[in-house]
Hints:
- Helix content is 34%, strand content 15%.
- It is α/β, with parallel strands linked by helices.
- Strand 4, helix 6 (168-184) and strand 5 form a beta-alpha-beta unit.
- The termini are far apart.
- The model is unreliable at 113-122 (pLDDT under 50).
Amino acid sequence: MLDSPPPYHYVAYIDEAGDPGIERVRPLDNPGASEWLVIGATLIEGANEPEPVNWVRSILQATGSTQKLALHFRDLKEWQKPLACLKLATLPVKLFVMTSNKKNMRGHRNERAASKTNPLVSKQVFYNYCLRLILERITDFVYRHSMKTYGEPRYVKIIYSKRGGHSYAHTFVYNEILKNQARSNTTFLQRREIRPEVIDIRLQETLAHTSNAGLQLADIVASSFYQAVDILPPTIWDIRNAKLLRDRMAQEGGFIHDYGVTIQPYPKATEAKLLPPQKEIFEFYGFDRRDFDIPWWK
């Protein structure tokens, strides 16, 4: 039996928009899975853990949605979405988003990972990898903030929005493997690492989106950026809402790109073969257009 979880001083809420399917991907396949998987996160200090209920209530009031019991960004009218983002941008939160364009992953199978799992679990290898990218940045931010504030690392509690057909037990174990690899300096693909000092398997759980206000805040992040990158119906493409979150996006050395806002694939973003409208939100957040433009000789 595991010991009681350690005390924590931060809480990260994680939700996603799109889906992790990569067998068939739009627009290469019709029908197919979504072109994008977007994972959004809202990070707060532990002292503010009771506050998301009040914050969501204030967002529902600002959007004239006081009759709703839960906040679903995609269900808001287009005129209500900017109001929700504006309100979120006034709150004491740090925001992270990982956007994965899946065209270059279409039909990909990670034999190294899938061979060690059953068929059900192997389907979530891609999701776990994308989650790893955002957790690397969240745990780095928590580590740096806690060292500055407390003089030592402090733990972050991670709450995931529960989605059907996903084994979160596998995800938690995968995160623990990454943590141990970081400690032993054996991380595969070592561009960034999860900070092992601030993450603990006992401080990870899943909850239904409708039952947790913090997850509803993370939904605003994931869904607003999804709307900024997905140009295929039924999405109504609009970058304005994601731009409104700029003041709360996490920064590293004064820069948001590749930290608060991440795109996969990167740095070889040309592999995504984005259309001009899809590049706009990344340019706004500091990415260089040349990262996305395919050279004329290719």
